[in-house]
């Protein structure tokens, strides 16, 4: 099942995709947001709830980031070996660590499928990063890697776009990862039963139709269960929390010469079974 968050006539809601329609689930489920829904008893009964929802043409709604205001967006750093190696070759001196290196994004840094990624006035070093996103359904603390799959509501696509100049101001990289409207998230949540736990998924990023990243999720250094277990040791994970699992090689800053996004570019990220996330790039007004 594919689930979306959207806005229509100034009202935010969430629903399920069915052909060219969105089936509104808020009234039928008794909750207001997709984050609440994936943590509710109704999530297990979603097929029945969909049968009771009202329909709206997809063309008549504005998609929002899959989870518009997650409590936490936990992002994994250098979680593909080929990306780690290209960063080293580009002069970024970072050692592999025993534990997953992570940082947090804020929800205001997100943007939706087909909405613009905004290149900030402060820098010309906006870069792309195609990633698999995991959405937490069942929250918890100190989750074991063995039970981690039970806490996954589903999967989506994330463009963890980075303002490299600010990312490299210090060893703590969050400054370059939290400019507003740079983290694209969508187009929808594919619920967990559609993907086998640990199933390798092909991932490809294109800029203006040119393939710039190509890999698959089996190349991760730290697996999804390891990321969930580690994050839940630090935080209490809550329904709707997002884990962005890292990017394969092919980012712009590692190229010779470096290549960065400019206004007019279009970034597309395909992940097998999850669709395509597409965003134009515009300059900050």
Notes on the protein architecture:
The chain has six helices and 19 strands. It is globular. 13% of the residues lie in helices and 34% in strands. By secondary structure, the protein is mainly beta. It has two domains: 2-63, no CATH class; 73-283, Fumarylacetoacetate hydrolase, domain 2. Strands 1, 2, 3, 4, 5, 6, 7, 8, 11, 12, 14 and 17 form a twelve-stranded mixed sheet that branches.
Distance between the termini: 37 Å
For the sheet with most strands, the description reads:
12 strands, mixed
User: What low-confidence regions span 5 or more consecutive residues with pLDDT below 50?
Assistant: none
The number of strands is 19
Mean pLDDT: 95
Helix content: 10-25%
H/E series, N to C? EEEHHHEEEHEEEEEEEHEEEHEEE
H/I helix tally: 6
SSE order and pairing:
Blueprint: E1 2-8, E2 11-18, E3 21-24, H1 26-29, H2 34-38, H3 46-50, E4 55-57, E5 62-63, E6 73-76, H4 81-89, E7 102-105, E8 110-111, E9 117-119, E10 126-127, E11 130-136, E12 152-160, E13 162-163, H5 164-167, E14 183-191, E15 202-207, E16 210-216, H6 224-234, E17 242-244, E18 266-271, E19 275-283
Parallel strand pairs: 6-17, 8-14, 9-19
Antiparallel strand pairs: 1-2, 1-5, 1-14, 2-3, 3-4, 6-7, 10-13, 11-12, 11-17, 12-14, 15-16, 15-18, 18-19
């Amino acid at each position: 099942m594919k689930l979306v968050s959207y806005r229509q006539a100034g009202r935010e809601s969430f629903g399920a995709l069915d052909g060219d329609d969105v089936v509104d689930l808020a009234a039928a489920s008794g909750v207001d947001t997709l984050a609440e829904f994936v943590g509710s008893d109704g999530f297990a009964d979603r097929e029945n709830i969909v049968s009771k929802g009202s329909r709206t043409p997809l063309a008549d709604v504005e998609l929002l980031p899959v989870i518009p205001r997650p409590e936490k967006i936990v992002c994994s750093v250098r979680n593909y070996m080929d990306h780690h190696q290209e960063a080293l070759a580009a002069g970024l001196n970072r050692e592999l660590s025993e534990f997953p290196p992570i940082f947090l994004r804020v929800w205001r840094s997100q943007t939706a499928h087909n909405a613009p990624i905004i290149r900030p006035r402060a820098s010309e070093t906006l870069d792309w990063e195609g990633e698999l996103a995991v959405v937490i359904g069942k929250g918890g603390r100190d989750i074991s890697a063995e039970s981690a799959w039970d806490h996954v509501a589903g999967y989506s696509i994330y463009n963890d776009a980075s303002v490299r100049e600010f990312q490299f101001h210090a060893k703590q990289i969050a400054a370059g990862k939290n400019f507003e409207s740079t983290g694209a998230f969508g187009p929808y949540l594919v619920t967990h039963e559609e993907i086998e736990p640990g199933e390798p998924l092909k991932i490809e990023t294109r800029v203006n139709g040119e393939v710039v990243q190509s890999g698959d999720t089996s190349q991760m250094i730290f697996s999804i269960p390891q990321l969930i277990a580690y994050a839940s040791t630090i935080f209490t994970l809550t329904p709707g929390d997002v884990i962005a699992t890292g990017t394969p090689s092919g980012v712009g800053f590692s190229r010779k010469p470096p290549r960065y996004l400019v206004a007019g570019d279009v970034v597309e990220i395909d992940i097998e079974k999850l669709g395509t996330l597409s965003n134009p790039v515009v300059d900050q007004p």
